[in-house]
Amino acid sequence: MCRAVAAFEAARASGRKVATVSNNSAVCVQTFLLLHGLLYSMDAVVGRAPYQPEAMKPSPDSLLRASSELAVPLRDCTLIGDSVTDVEAAKGD
Q1: From CA 38, how far away is CA 33, in angstroms rounded?
Q2: Residue environment code for 37-54, b if the CB has 16+ CB neighbours within 10 A, otherwise e
Q3: What is the C-alpha separation between 73 and 39, in angstroms, rounded?
């Protein structure tokens, strides 16, 4: 099993909510997750804000939107990222 999938499942098994946050469009990410049988494991999918390139990571905007959609305070969220821009977004740089 892929480590990312294992992380999703472990988070959900522990009662946490899970969101995917991407600089791609939400529809694109939802389609990918659906095709790979993973959409069930997401409570939210947050993609880039249309026509707002300045809101893309490393801007923290999408992380703030995910926190809001999940109704989980940002301080209680954990980011698992795969890029420098993910870390920068989490730090609020």
Answers
A1: 5
A2: ebeebbbbbbbbbeeeee
A3: 23
Q: Give the single-character DSSP code of 47.
A: -
Question: What does residue 77 show for φ and ψ, rounded to 5 degrees?
Answer: -95, 150
pTM: 0.89
With contact defined as beta carbons under 8 Å apart, do 5 and 12 qualify? no
pLDDT tens by residue, 54-81: 999 999 999 999 999 999 999 999 888 8
Cα 91 to Cα 34: distance, rounded to the nearest angstrom: 30
Distance in angstroms (rounded) separating the CA atoms of residues 39 and 5: 11
The dihedral region occupied by 88, where left means phi > 0, alpha psi between -120 and 50, and beta the remainder, is alpha
